[in-house]
Amino acid sequence: MWRWWRKRRGELEEAAFTYPLLLLLSIGLFNLALFGYAGLLASNAANYGARMGSVAQENPAALARQAAMQRIAVAPVGQYRVRVVAASERGGEVQVIVDFTVPNYFKGLASWFGVNMSDFHGQARATFRKEGW
């Protein structure tokens, strides 16, 4: 039994050092994947809202906001805020801006080391020219 333990001691020391590093790396990759996914959702919502607002004949700003909010209502992660700047005349621009925040799971761990981290913030923006009839 002791002989087996002496042979395995080096492997256990390596595992004790390597596994926490792999865990931190995995959490970091998960954080970045969530941020990328939330950015993709926000970008799609901004594009859809701007497109719907550009073809609206009446009140393009309200329709663009409603369409963007409809797209991000099913988002499983993050918090979103939609802003719309729209011109009502033909040829004017409809711009939809989606601000988003994604939780940072390193925040609690970083506070142990005196590092102040916050959640991830991003913005997606889409502009379409208003079609006219």
Short key terms for the protein model shown above:
133 residues, 53% helix, 3 helices, alpha+beta, three-stranded antiparallel β-sheet, rod-shaped
Structure commentary:
This protein is of the alpha+beta class and 133 residues long. Helices cover 53% and strands 21% of the residues. The protein contains 3 helices and 3 strands. Helix 1 (2-54) packs antiparallel against helix 2. The model has no long low-confidence stretch (mean pLDDT 87).
List the helices and strands and how they pair.
Layout: H1 2-54, H2 60-72, E1 79-86, E2 93-102, H3 107-111, E3 120-129
Antiparallel strand pairs: 1-2, 2-3
Oligomer: single chain
Tally of separate domains: 1
Helical residue percent band: 40-55%
- Catalogue the unreliable spans: none
Strand content: 15-25%
What is the number of helical segments per DSSP (H or I, 4+ residues)?
A: 3
Average pLDDT, rounded to a whole number, is 87
Number of strands: 3
Shape: rod-shaped
Read across the widest sheet, the strand sequence of neighbours is 1-2-3
Terminus-to-terminus distance: 87 Å
The class by helix and strand makeup works out as alpha+beta
